[in-house]
Amino acid sequence: MKIKNYIIAALLVITGVYSCDEDSFLTEEPRDNIYADNLLQSYDGFVNMMNSVYAWVRAEKSRLIPVGGIPITRSMCWTSGVDNAFMNNGHSKVVFLNLPTNINPEMDYFDDMFKWLYKIINITNMVIERAENPDVDWQGGSAEANAVNKNYIIAQARVIRAWAYRHLTYSWGDVPLSLIEVSGATIKDDWERAPVDEVRTQMVKDLKFGIDHLEIRDENPAIVNEAVARHYLADTYLTMQQYDSAEIVAKVLCEGTDYRLMTERFGSTAGDPGNAFMDMFHTPLPADGNEEALWVFLNTEPENVSYGYEPGSYLNNMWLTYYSKDEIIKTLDIQTFYIYNGGRGAGRTSITESALSWYEDQDDRFSEFAIVKFLLMPNETTGLLDTVLWTNTDFEITEGKYDLDHYQWPSTRKWEYVHPDPAQFNERNHFEDIMYIRLADTYLLLAEALHMQEKDDEAAIWINKVRERSNATPITGADVDIDFILDERSRELITEEHRRHALIRTGKLVERIQLYNEFAGPTIAEAPHLWPIPQTVIDANTGRKMEQNPGF
Question: Which domains does the chain possess?
Answer without folding.
Answer: 1-214+521-552 (1.25.40.890), 315-428 (no CATH)
